[in-house]
Amino acid sequence: MATEAASIDIAPAPQPVKAVHPLASLQEDELRTITRLVKEHNPGQVCSFRRALLIEPPKAEVVPYLEAELEGRPRPRPPIRRGQALFYFEGRQEYMEAIVDITNGRMLGQRHLVGEHGPGSDEEMLKIGAAALASSLVKKEVERLQLPANCQVIAEPWPYGSDESDTPTRLSQVWFFLNYEHNKDHPSANFYGHPLDFSCVVDIATMSVTRIDRLPSNLGMSNTDPNARFVPNADSEYAPELQQNGLRRDLKPLHISQPQGVSFDVGADGETISWQKWRFRCCFDVREGMVLRNVTYDGRPVFYRMALSEMMVPYGDPREPLHRKSAFDLGECGAGQVANNLQLGCDCLGVIHYLDGLSVSPDGEPAIIPNAICIHEQDAGLGWKHTNIRTGRADVTRARELIFQLIVTVGNYEYALYWILDTAGTIHYEIRATGIMSVTPSAPGVDLSSLGYGTVVADGVFAPHHQHIFNLRIDPALDGYRSNAVVYDDTFAMPREPASNPHGVGFEVKTTQVDKEQAFDLDWTTNRVVKMINPNKVNKHSRKPIAYKVVAPPTQLGLFDPSSMHYKRGEFTDNHIHVTKYADDELWGSGEHMWQSRGGRGGCNAWANRGRQLEDDSVLWLTLGFTHATRAEDWPVMPCEVFRMHFKPVGFFEQNPALDVAPSTQNVNKSRLAFDGNGTQTQEAAVEPACCRPRL
Amino acid sequence: MATEAASIDIAPAPQPVKAVHPLASLQEDELRTITRLVKEHNPGQVCSFRRALLIEPPKAEVVPYLEAELEGRPRPRPPIRRGQALFYFEGRQEYMEAIVDITNGRMLGQRHLVGEHGPGSDEEMLKIGAAALASSLVKKEVERLQLPANCQVIAEPWPYGSDESDTPTRLSQVWFFLNYEHNKDHPSANFYGHPLDFSCVVDIATMSVTRIDRLPSNLGMSNTDPNARFVPNADSEYAPELQQNGLRRDLKPLHISQPQGVSFDVGADGETISWQKWRFRCCFDVREGMVLRNVTYDGRPVFYRMALSEMMVPYGDPREPLHRKSAFDLGECGAGQVANNLQLGCDCLGVIHYLDGLSVSPDGEPAIIPNAICIHEQDAGLGWKHTNIRTGRADVTRARELIFQLIVTVGNYEYALYWILDTAGTIHYEIRATGIMSVTPSAPGVDLSSLGYGTVVADGVFAPHHQHIFNLRIDPALDGYRSNAVVYDDTFAMPREPASNPHGVGFEVKTTQVDKEQAFDLDWTTNRVVKMINPNKVNKHSRKPIAYKVVAPPTQLGLFDPSSMHYKRGEFTDNHIHVTKYADDELWGSGEHMWQSRGGRGGCNAWANRGRQLEDDSVLWLTLGFTHATRAEDWPVMPCEVFRMHFKPVGFFEQNPALDVAPSTQNVNKSRLAFDGNGTQTQEAAVEPACCRPRL
């Protein structure tokens, strides 16, 4: 965060912003202070804001505050709150950063971020699309295609990505699709079902089309046929009104109710959540979507910060210009920036509380994203059970989860992101991938699936295989904010040996300390388990350090060549685990500015490869990949593909933390039998009062 | 199923049993026919029945029946129903098998299963325990320990397992625990919290104790101290009434209701289930718990048979006599045999339908297990969603699942087993492991966790690490019962090469045919995906065979030495995937008779290693392992550890099969806001009628 320009002192603002908790999300008045200071610092310029963000106070300043808070001691003065503005001067290429002291209303410095570019937004994408459609180059291509009468061409701008050619200006690559006349007025008409065979490149600062790229649609690597025409293909509609065979009518309503209200509380700050001994901040973040801060359980710190750090979506189609397709949806766009307004009863079922999100408008005003996060409880099935076969007595509890959901739309694609806490001390992170796959044209009658890097999913539509590679940054704080180490356990068969393992059945767990910054992979052959530990506190029974483990399967990593631009940009995509020394400004696995990034400016690899000694200040980065070989079943809209990973206590507690969950009883749960004794569906309460009666 | 004794013709029974569907579960009258025929065949003997089972009719005889059924043609005469009885003559060691023709009421043959032993039951285990406690050898050990006054010693019989020493008689190994005086009358007192330092071996036929084994409880490999006494330790109670700090009281009720009834139907046969285009039989099975038979979707066959085939639970503690601990819970015991009676509102939440289970009593009468399977629908969160950012219109559906739950108690441990079908054409199999870990004594003051193969989880209690290795047998029938093949797809980065992959970003899927019986592993480095295909039917868009894929992570396999008895018995535990040629009598991955089995009598390895050519008759066996390094948090009862695997369509459908699920709307879902405008919890309907309103 060093500033290039000298910092300029400005007199304190007449009314300093009111003190807020050091870990609170950016407040609306803070945002206004940031943009005001930037505007005042740049008289005569029109600032177009991309981001107005909180720079989290240095952890070293926050920890004494949190410790005092936890111990009930008088809290020290909260650290100064600083903000970052990322902006352009209207019509210019230079990407600008300003750092301000929000607390004291002072500009600390401003600089041109040389070689970097700002993130996109839906609003900008729509402008780029309009510019593309207005271009004579594009019109010429449209003319060549001899499209059906009265159809509507849709421009779909994407980040430009990167390849070996240098691209100093900020660019977008734009794909084209169409709606036929008969459904072009439908708000959910699926234009992606009709991909056109060209794209264009737009210089965003000037909003001008600089190049047309033809898209390959045949078995060859390129398509340069000057006379290629559009071949009409069938619609692929997902909207319910457009289903030619109607909708299924036999899925009966299912209602979730909580007649005594919900079990969670939300603090007056609007983001401190208390539920089942958990207490933490669920903060909206423009980039990361949701950030959990200062997660505590029964008054004990567990995690300082947990967030999705980046998501890379590289496509396996090597044909130009498709080779650049590789989205970094957090860095190029922002999971919070494109968060949906979630709707009661549509996106969320049951008894719901919503949190709004805060972004900035181009002119520097707060832009509220209503209902960006929905919070609700969910029954999670059997919690634990045991039946004593001697007495027939069964003890059974149910598991309950508290779910935080945020759904993002990134052009064609949707991700639903979830932080989930449960009644047994586990934190889960879940991702659901849905929406519409990114597709390109397929010439009729050609077996494009034979190429191996994609599937023809409908007439004229080729869906290239791609990867979704997620990276989570986990900053642990197990019973303290100053003692974070990482180890991993491998389980090995013991050698068959008369003295120690005479029957050849023994196996043992061996622990490896991660004492230096490094990257490594999971390994199913040794059941490798990565644990975050507090090396200074042991479980009284096991005599091992208290820990939380990562439960995630080993998944395929980035498939691009180490010499490729994808690899240089990715940073986190070639190992499952990176462990780095804590630094306040190392939050995102591929680095900070991702639009047309060219690598070499930080990220998991660079940081892990420093190999510095770790001294109770380890941060864990977890990479989970999903190689999506496209299916017909994912078209025209994809049923959610679900990934869930877990953070589970290992000796953090002295016994099962769900032991005090009350038994599951019919008296409380009010279930019903589906059918009466005659096999007829029953609407009345067919309540069976005897509960957990002996089996014997 | 060859019989050793010559078959003996018996005159047809006066009233042949009524014809039932070839795939129907064993009926009560059929069970009575089996045991009656066996009794008639053995006059003067007292038969003690272990099992009375249906032998599924040969697939070759069933398929024409199913095809006629599906196509609405007149059905051929159903195949003869045959039954198998497994039994002992009271007080004798010979394990007997009889095969009967149920349809015609004829004994087909009977033989002594030389070298095999019958499965256990809870009733037998309790008898063994009583015999052990009555033995003078055991009494002497108890005396040595100088136990606290008025405590109660509990005997916990287990299967004997196997090791290199030959054990021709049927044995049980018995562990001992105690309850202190103060809680010995509590029906859920956790005696496992007080393990004693010896075990005994019982000859089951004679119910006599043949040997005492001392248990190691120190750092050495054995414990022979003739004067070792019991060292009292603290209780580890799981029962709610015994929680010293009380129960949490802030988890509010959560109710699930279906005001218009459930969406599924149950046929008059009690086991044919119809739900959301799925139609199949959910059959109770004494051994496998639940078997799905003839699973069809929208009238198209998908699977002929799906079931858990075996579960092996080897322990990593190499010390004698613990080295033999390795449960085969299906073959030694039976998931159906020890199924819980599930209770409305306790084990199952919402609107529930129950299926009963059928077993046999020792005297040959039907033994009903009430409510063995619970069936209910569950909301599964976001189904699919897309927002068109140009129009602001969001289309969103929810996913629904139909769940079949069976919970088994195997002594100390519980497994909840689930078949789950969803609205997007996917079938899931879920296992939840809970209950109480098998533990052994730990001498006070000794760091037994340092041994590497277990964890001291409480004062005096050592929980050895162990594995749960599950094996599923999947017999596919994709659009037909006669064309089953298996392939696997690997995804490779393409070499960077100017002509085909100039930017080094391409990757491709390569398919390998499994043309011979074989075993192989999953591989995350290539994202290996195993698919069951119909080689004779292609998806019209992708031009690839229609398929269902297995979605399961690669997990650690058996950790025992290939020379060990565990290995010889396991059969399925050293590869993730086995593919074999279909055979009517190859249903269980470790073979049929598991009590004291010694290997070499069939199972996945043996069958896969035949290496025969496959001819559209492939069966897939999937192994999933969980290496459980024990945690304090798993004690005294273990929060459910959840494993879910999936079977997903790949080109089986021409598009997303959930496309016709009606949109998720507040009008149907009736959600509520948790708090009113003042932040007060609201009990009234705070319904927001506007649904899915535009985000822009």
Automatic annotation (TrEMBL), chains A, B:
Q: Kindly list the positions at which 2',4',5'-topaquinone occurs in this protein.
A: Y413
Active site positions, chain numbering: D329, Y413
A GO biological process of this protein is: amine metabolic process
Cofactor names from the entry are: Cu cation
Gene Ontology MF, one:
copper ion binding
Q: Return the InterPro entries for the record.
A: Cu_Am_ox_TPQ-bd, Cu_amine_oxidase, Cu_amine_oxidase_C, Cu_amine_oxidase_C_sf, Cu_amine_oxidase_N-reg, Cu_amine_oxidase_N2, Cu_amine_oxidase_N3
Describe how it is modified after translation.
Topaquinone (TPQ) is generated by copper-dependent autoxidation of a specific tyrosyl residue.
Q: Where is the Copper amine oxidase catalytic domain?
A: 254-659
Q: What is its EC number?
A: 1.4.3.-
Is ATP-binding found in the keyword set?
no
Q: How is the cofactor bound?
A: Contains 1 topaquinone per subunit.
Stretch forming the signal peptide: none
Domain Copper amine oxidase N2-terminal residue range list? 21-111
Q: What is stated as this protein's family in its record? A: Belongs to the copper/topaquinone oxidase family.
* Protein name from the UniProt record: Amine oxidase
Q: Which organism is it from?
A: Rhodotorula paludigena
